[in-house]
Amino acid sequence: xxxxxxxxxxxxxxxxxxxxxxxxxxxxxxxxxxxxxxxxxxxxxxxxxxxxxxxxxxxxxxxxxxxxxxxxxxxxxxxxxxxxxxxxxxxxxxxxxxxxxxxxxxxxxxxxxxxxxxxxxxxxxxxxxxxxxxxxxxxxxxxxxxxxxxxxxxxxxxxxxxxxxxxxxxxxxxxxxxxxxxxxxxxxxxxxxxxxxxxxxxxxxxxxxxxxxxxxxxxxxxxxxxxxxxxxxxxxxxxxxxxxxxxxxxxxxxxxxxxxxxxxxxxxxxxxxxxxxxxxxxxxxxxxxxxxxxxxxxxxxxxxxxxxxxxxxxxxxxxxx
Length: 321
Ligand code: OGA
Ligand code: MN
What we know:
Helix content: 10-25%
Keywords: Dioxygenase, Iron, Metal-binding, Oxidoreductase
Largest sheet: 7 strands, mixed
Distance between the termini: 43 Å
Pfam family, one: TauD
Strand content: 15-25%
CATH superfamily of the largest domain: Clavaminate synthase-like
Bound molecules: N-oxalylglycine, manganese (II) ion
CATH class of the largest domain: Alpha Beta
GO molecular function: dioxygenase activity
InterPro entries: AtsK-like, TauD-like_sf, TauD/TfdA-like
Low-confidence stretches: none
Oligomer: single chain
Number of helices: 7
Protein name: TauD/TfdA family dioxygenase
């Protein structure tokens, strides 16, 4: 028998319904919306190691579409158990080797299915300890992930909180004229990992280097460009959301440079309003599962000498519409 891949092994090993002590009783699960927050619900009484009932996964999918992020408390999983749980909700995001993303490996041209997000040198220190500005994962790819999960293993004493932004609320709060104006616009978000690689070639000590926020037509194009709608429709709820990261290099298609950069700057300022944002204070054992189609997320910096390790699984999504 040939060796199984990690994902096949995960599903092979996962508990099944007939194992009574490994079956999650749906009646034990409570989904509690966060009060007074822009988005989010906490899920109690669910052990993600266990086999889940169909009605449970359906309920969680509906809750995700409604609350945009789900927070599972007090989990204790190895990578295989984590993969088995995450893949109830869809296929693992596996970009092709022509599109670099966070944690792309030199040997394969793709990221691992479980990405360590850490500041420990050589152990998944892709994002270091600095601030991460509000973004949607993989927005610059042809087929961005529909959602991701982050599982907190080790946390710093100070900082490192992650915020999520409700971009449906942000869209809804725009005035009608702006909505009408932007509804049919297409946006290119340039791949920051191409820019990072290029900066490193030019100057190995450059770190992340400088990113323009908007590309004017006389500026070089960095990497392949994939236009997606600026206003996205959620595939299940039908709600519209503003799909724009706040700091990446972007460009509106068929739009005047100056006017486009001003419009994008205005929308970005709007997105950053506190009423659209929920800041998560992590506890170890938390898993946050977010809908990447209708949220942004960001991270506060934390001291470099304090360790932080989360594990991320991203799920494949369809072409944005
Ligand atoms: C990510 C990410 C935020 C964090 O892994 O996609 O944005 O809090 N992480 O580390
Ligand atoms: Mn991210």
